[in-house]
Flavin-dependent oxidoreductase (Agromyces aurantiacus), 417 residues
Amino acid sequence: MRIVIAGAGIGGLAAALSLEAAGFRDIRIFERADRIRGLGVGINLLPHAVRELTELGLAERVGALGVAPSTLTYFTRHGQRIWSEPRGLAAGYRWPQLSVHRGRLQLALLEAVEERLGDVVHLGHRLVGIDDAEGTTATATFATAEGTTDVEADVVIGADGIHSALRALRYPDDGDPVWSGLTLWRGTAVIDPYLDGRTMVMAGDGEQKFVAYPLENPGPGGRQRVNFIAERRGVGSPDVDWNRSVDPAPIVDLFREWRFDWLDIPATIAASDEILEYPMVDRDALPRWTFGRTTLLGDAAHAMYPNGSNGGSQAILDARTLAYQLATAPSPEAALEEYDRIRRPATEALLALTRRTGPERVMQLARERAPHGFDDIHDVIPQSELEQIAAEYKAAAGFHPDSLNARSSLTVALESR
Ligand SMILES: Cc1cc2nc3c(=O)[nH]c(=O)nc-3n(C[C@H](O)[C@H](O)[C@H](O)COP(=O)(O)OP(=O)(O)OC[C@H]3O[C@@H](n4cnc5c(N)ncnc54)[C@H](O)[C@@H]3O)c2cc1C
């Protein structure tokens, strides 16, 4: 089967690796960029995605890139603790959560693709057209520096990100991503470890928030690189560019009061090498991803808010599910339909939850019920309500420990094919 993937991001590369593991060999990836530079800052891989990477034989390679957070703790904008929960292995999962640099993850996946499949990534190829009038094949058209080139395949996968060309070809009226009105400033900084040196923290509420997590274990000098996302409503613009660099001074100023005994937030922002501004955008759910021999995957199918920690993880789950279906369904059309039937409702439910701020709802509740702080969080939000909010999101995102640990594998038994 000839398989063409548009986009060599985390989703496209994970799809190639999943297809290779499921027995496919004729796989080509076409990437718009002339070079894969490994851009971005931090990204979290939740245990359900780490499971898939482990089953692809990538656990050590990816594990070496980052830090497995021990704990997630929510604080108010006054620095008071609301809720804390263990993460990864400490929470009873068979697989850890991993905080990694997005660019290093992308380069590690690219390296694995080249080792396993050879020279299959074609750079400088931008998907611009699709013709599947034949029904039994699909021809993708790519714009290159020399003109355009047509590539015929049995299956075409659009893993071409939030500005997906394949999505726009299928849904010409889709328009721009939807802006929540929040602006994110992302960066990394080398600082003294805070709390236990492996805790992901979120402080604030729906108006203004700060998220941080370590990306490296402490180095010889005892300091470590952390990733952070500062967030504020009512400033910035909806222009979507992952790499727009801005002056840190106004953002440091927005957080000047947020100096806590567990972390000095303005000092962390000021220590950043570079601040990247990004609007908190997503896209509305689609009525279908699959059209005959073509389908969408990752952000192209279901771009979500980046701070839901699910962008990379859901793309990896898509990749594994699609490869499993292509290897086991009676025809490519049936496989793509089944992939759509399984993954689309799952990600649609998650999208709805992330729009309601997912597990971060506890921060908003604390702000609404006790805007000036509290003596005891349980006077404000009962323990049972805190637990229910955390469990609800994990179940919807497919990473409740019980269901993830019990779910059957998406690895294809090649000898039985
Ligand atoms: C430069 C960049 C930086 C990012 N930084 C972060 C970050 O710091 N934190 C975070 O949580 N998430 C970040 N993300 C998003 C995150 O990688 C995705 O949400 C997630 O990994 C899902 O991956 P994806 O493969 O679906 O999309 P992406 O990772 O966006 O990959 C899409 C790929 O398709 C390529 N492409 C686009 N259009 C075409 C076309 N027409 N033809 C061919 N190829 C095309 C793009 O160049 C890109 O390589 C970033 C994405 C990018 C592209």
Remarks:
- The CA atoms of residues 304 and 351 lie 6 Å apart.
- The first strand starts at residue 3 and ends at 6.
